[in-house]
Design goal:
Blueprint: E1 3-5, H1 15-29, E2 38-44, E3 52-54, E4 62-69, H2 76-91, H3 94-98, H4 106-127, H5 140-152, H6 165-178, H7 183-199, H8 217-227, H9 233-242
Parallel strand pairs: 1-2, 2-4
Antiparallel strand pairs: 3-4
Helix pairs in contact: 1-2, 1-4, 2-4, 4-5, 4-7, 8-9
Length: 253
């Protein structure tokens, strides 16, 4: 998979931006056992209300996906944050899941995509201190780190004192099922999973097997466990434990 500027993109998608976005995707794609079956064409629209993945892909295997970003200038941290989120939508097969227009489990997909952004930002911030794409980009490592810290430390993204994410979700699940885009709540879920994905980044393979299901979340996780290949079952079993759902596999090594 390679990232390209869309032919109809305006001036925002420069060669430097393409270098940046290819770096972003490498932090997740390197762990995939099966490559993405198409390139990603990126366009820029700073006036658009939000980034978006356009699912024109699929008529022919290998057709490119198209991603619209709203970041501009040299705000590398915003480009990275937005693109990692949209890349996760590509991996989850969000197009097919979204055909169930009112799928009440979209909130979990949005939480995983927020997780992809946080996962990638921290990896880039660490790696760019010593191995940036270009030597003169090394100073941007600090910007990436500061942006990551600002996102993860927002008070609205923290669990209430004394609550586990499983306990918190019992009160929030119905609200999330009604509105998948409760961004601060999505981030609470993301932060609860960040350490797991950082310790076991092969878990990104599992997001490609999310069920197209409207089941309650406990059952949804069980369906996800059943849908993944054997190699991914230990990871999903461990993830289920984060939400106090009975594990279906041996603990991860």
């Amino acid at each position: 998979m390679t990232v390209h500027a869309s032919p109809d993109s305006e001036n925002g998608i420069t060669p430097d931006v393409i270098t940046l976005l290819n770096d972003v995707e490498s932090h997740i794609v390197q762990y995939l056992r099966r490559p993405v079956d198409g390139d990603i064409m990126v366009c820029s629209d700073p006036d658009a209300p939000h980034p978006l993945t356009r699912y024109t892909h699929g008529a022919v295997v290998g057709d490119p996906f198209t991603v619209r970003l709203t970041a501009q200038g040299r705000y590398w941290s915003q480009y990275a944050y937005q693109f990692a989120h949209e890349l996760c939508h590509v991996l989850t097969g969000h197009e097919e899941i979204s055909r169930f227009d009112n799928n009440p489990n979209k909130w979990f997909i949005e939480s995983l995509c927020e997780l992809a952004s946080l996962f990638t930002l921290r990896r880039m911030a660490d790696l760019w201190q010593t191995r940036p794409p270009f030597p003169n980009w090394q100073d941007y490592a600090r910007e990436l780190h500061e942006y990551f810290e600002e996102l993860v430390n927002r008070p609205t993204r923290q669990l209430p004192p004394g609550l586990t994410v499983a306990e918190w979700l019992r009160d929030k699940e119905n609200l999330l099922r009604e509105d998948a885009y409760r961004r601060e709540d999505n981030a609470v879920v993301s932060l609860s999973l960040l350490n797991l994905f950082e310790a076991h980044p092969q878990g990104w393979n599992a997001v490609r097997y999310l069920p197209k299901s409207d089941s309650a979340f406990v059952d949804y996780l069980a369906e996800w466990y059943e849908s993944v290949p054997a190699d991914d079952k230990p990871f999903i079993g461990f993830l289920m434990g984060v939400f106090d759902v009975e594990q279906r596999s041996h603990p991860l090594p």
